[in-house]
Amino acid sequence: MVIHTRFAPSPTGRLHLGHAWSAIQAHDHARAHGGRFTLRIEDIDGTRSRPAHVEAILRDLEWLGLGWDGAVTWQSRRLHLYEAALGRLRGQGLLYPCFCTRADIAASASAPHGPEGALYPGTCRGLEAPDLRRPHCWRLDMARALQCLPQHAGGETELCWRDAHAGCVRADPAAAGDVVLARKDAPASYHLAVTVDDAAQGITDVVRGVDLFAATHVHRLLQALLGLPTPEYRHHPLLAGPDGTRLAKRHGAPSLEAMRLAGEDGRALAERLRAGQLPVGIAATGA
Ligand code: GLU
């Protein structure tokens, strides 16, 4: 089997060292196995994606010496695929429209919490006659979705994925609650688009940061519901700033673009990252 990895940035800001670290790992894993490495621009969020960020991403990757194979893929040009997946889940009775605002959900005293904050309390689940002219997103009815899965001998539903670092992981999508699959302001959510695309593009190894580990529980469920293959996952450690939290803009680290424009050698920087020589104050961390 030919290994196929991807780097899938959202062009909502300039890339920084943490992105370089992730892109290098996806690129090198493919190259080490004579495989393919592709670039997917995750630009379904029309309000936050900017062409100038895309331009910088392409230049940054070239500067780092991370050439990709084939044409760049754009999620904004693949909306029909996400719509088809939504249609399929809707046809199975697994989606419902939700009219709640963030504030509504936060205000719900009974909202339980999952790994990514407040879980949706189910306010709009089972509405008799939803008025679809009002702004709404589409949520997965998690309890129903789990019932749809083939049951195993003990009455348990067994969904697993292979993770290069964590081993065999048993998926627990219920912990994420009724996740959003189509947003109010975008025709698909991250969870849906990424799962559909990884399958449609034949990605064999999803190399990405461990911050997305919790999302994989949901992606594994969507694969089962949509009849899609499960790739192998390699959730790598993240780069963290001096305070131990995931490296971000607020740490004041320069963007890759700023380093590039300052005349730094991108390939030498990539080599240092590969060798684990991180700038002062930056460390690799497990979560
Ligand atoms: N687009 C996502 C991000 O920039 C990453 C998607 C993924 O690797 O699954 O955080």
UniProtKB/TrEMBL annotation:
Q: Tell me the superkingdom of the source.
A: Bacteria
Q: Which GO terms describe its biological process?
A: glutamyl-tRNA aminoacylation
GO molecular function annotations of the record: ATP binding; glutamate-tRNA ligase activity
Q: Any idea where the Glutamyl/glutaminyl-tRNA synthetase class Ib catalytic domain is? A: 3-265
Coiled-coil ranges (or none): none
User: What UniProt keywords apply to this chain's record, in alphabetical order?
Assistant: Aminoacyl-tRNA synthetase, ATP-binding, Ligase, Metal-binding, Nucleotide-binding, Protein biosynthesis, Zinc
Name of the top EC class for this enzyme = ligase
Q: Pfam families from the xrefs?
A: tRNA-synt_1c (PF00749)
What does UniProt give as the signal peptide span? Answer: none
Any one annotated GO CC term: cytosol
Q: Which family does it belong to?
A: Belongs to the class-I aminoacyl-tRNA synthetase family.
Q: Which PANTHER family match?
A: GLUTAMATE--TRNA LIGASE, GLUTAMYL-Q TRNA(ASP) SYNTHETASE
Name used for this protein in its record = Glutamyl-Q tRNA(Asp) synthetase
Tell me the organism: Sphingomonas leidyi
